[in-house]
Design a protein that fits this description.
The chain is mainly beta and 51 residues long. It is built from no helices and five strands.
Length: 51
Amino acid sequence: MPDIKVQCCRCKNKHMESERLKVPSKKYGSGVSDMICPRCRCTTYYRLQAD
């Protein structure tokens, strides 16, 4: 799977999807992780590259 350029919805930080940090999900509990922005820790982002 290719690395995808993304942009954070909150702080507008542009980075690669592989740079996002994995943290345990607060919503779904153990065993599930969220990918968060390395700058502001937001969980939502836009994909900047088309498929």
